[in-house]
Amino acid sequence: MRRLLRKWWFYFMLILGVGFLLPEDGQIPVEGASASDWNPASFWYYPWGKSGTHKGVDIFAKRNTPVKAMASGLVIYQGELSRGGKVVLVLGPKWRFQYYAHLASVEVSAFSWLHSGQRLGSVGDSGNAKGKPPHLHFSLMSVVPYPWRIDTSPQGWKKMFYLNPTQHF
């Protein structure tokens, strides 16, 4: 039994380590966008509707502008959520989830592999963005917590999981 546990622990640590070693290419996920297409102060902005705190950035672009994978990864989910509308969730390098929301279209399927820069959908206004200017809501979340990032801001304990995506482009 002890030998089996050691073997399991070894493989677990190996997989975890490989995930951290994968490079995070970090490109802006909206084709043709630049830093002038989002407000950097919108990350962790409070108050922000029903979610309380805005845990990502909104990148504004024309409807149907291509949305591309920020980094390579495995599509964990694609579908519709009430607030996010048409969404895609990708597990990428460093054990980070990339969350793409308010899409007009989704062009990938669950459990498919995306390469950095590969098109996954297009900018829209689905979900609770209906009727607002088309944009991509993009969040970056870590599976592995960073407890030193916790602060006293509203929902500040969640900062150990949510990363400012603009620092990763």
Written account of the structure:
With 169 residues, this protein is mainly beta. The protein has a single domain, classed as Glucose Permease (Domain IIA) (Distorted Sandwich), CATH 2.70.70.10. Helices cover 12% and strands 35% of the residues. The protein is built from one helix and eleven strands, in the order αβββββββββββ. The chain has one helix spanning 2-21, and strands at residues 45-48, 52-54, 57-60, 66-68, 73-81, 85-92, 96-106, 113-114, 119-123, 135-142, 162-163. Strands 3, 4, 5, 6, 7, 8, 9, 10 and 11 form a nine-stranded antiparallel beta sheet that branches. The chain has a two-stranded antiparallel ribbon with strand order 1-2. Strand 6 (85-92) and strand 7 form a beta hairpin. The model has no long low-confidence stretch (mean pLDDT 94).
Short description:
The protein is mainly β and 169 residues long. The protein is built from one helix and eleven strands; from the N terminus they run αβββββββββββ. Helix content is 12%, strand content 35%.
Q: Please work out how many helical segments DSSP would assign.
A: 1
Share of β-strand residues: 25-35%
Sheet/helix structural class: mainly beta
The tally of beta strands, per DSSP, is 11
Shape: globular
Spans where pLDDT lies below 50 across 5 or more residues: none
Give the termini distance in whole angstroms. 45 Å
Report the helical percentage: 10-25%
- Written as H for each helix and E for each strand, in order along the chain, the element string is HEEEEEEEEEEE
Average pLDDT confidence is 94
Instruction: Indicate the CATH class.
Output: Mainly Beta
What value does the Rg take, in angstroms?
17 Å
Provide the CATH topology.
Glucose Permease (Domain IIA)
Number of domains: 1
Major β-sheet profile: 9 strands, antiparallel
Q: What is the CATH superfamily? A: Glucose Permease (Domain IIA)
